[in-house]
Amino acid sequence: MEYRQDIINLTVNYVKETLADAEGGHDWWHIYRVWQQARKLAASEKVDMMVVELGALLHDIADSKFNGGDEEIGPAKAVAFMQHQGLPADVIQHVENIVRYISFKGGHNENGFYSLELGVVQDADRLDAIGAIGIARAFNYGGFKNRAIYDPNISPVMSRSKEDYKHNTAPTINHFYEKLLLLRDRMNTETGKRLAEQRHQFMEQYLQQFYAEWEGMSGDES
Ligand code: ADP
Ligand code: NI
């Protein structure tokens, strides 16, 4: 569809208001970064920019993590907002699919839906979960959940179940091995892959430094 700056502006206002009290890693600034990154990635792809921008802006409008695990509130809120703006039905359907499938763990076709627009927004969201900002978001979320940052008695690379996370027994460092270090190999676009590589290397370097500092302490205090 043709680009509608007025609708994008109204969407920005709606998202800012809705996320006013959100946790620091899922607040308006996360949405802002994903939106801007998605616009950049979209410049090298043949996509409907309205779908990309609406998808980026609405993708975390009601994250199930903060809504009792309900996966339907986000898509429903996004659809209601878009209907109110009088957007065409096919655009509403496409953006709803982006909101619904962006954070599914599987690859392209395992979800039953894939489009380049979803690929672009998903890459932008994943880029915000890695690198320096990704590290900040992970520890902020861990703090929000009152998790340890690291526990030398709990292996960070041991495969841990979802239940461990639910019960808050996994330190935040474990999240790097469960998810953050896996994202580089799950990027959809060429630009996304390139940006992810650099951020991935930064995280590897960060973890090396983290353990080196931690080891430096052992023997000093005990
Ligand atoms: P998405 O929004 O792509 O579905 P998530 O909501 O799982 O992904 O993650 C959003 C942000 O919250 C990421 O920066 C991620 O690192 C962080 N996060 C999610 N789960 C955890 C966790 N168990 N420990 C630390 N950070 C987490
Ligand atoms: Ni997100």
TrEMBL record:
SMART domains hit by this protein: HDc
Highest taxon in the source lineage: Bacteria
All copies of domain HD, residue ranges: 27-130
Any Pfam family matching the protein: HD
SUPFAM superfamilies on file: HD-domain/PDEase-like (SSF109604)
InterPro entries: HD/PDEase_dom, HD_domain
Protein name: HD domain-containing protein
Species classification: Bacteria, Pseudomonadati, Bacteroidota, Chitinophagia, Chitinophagales
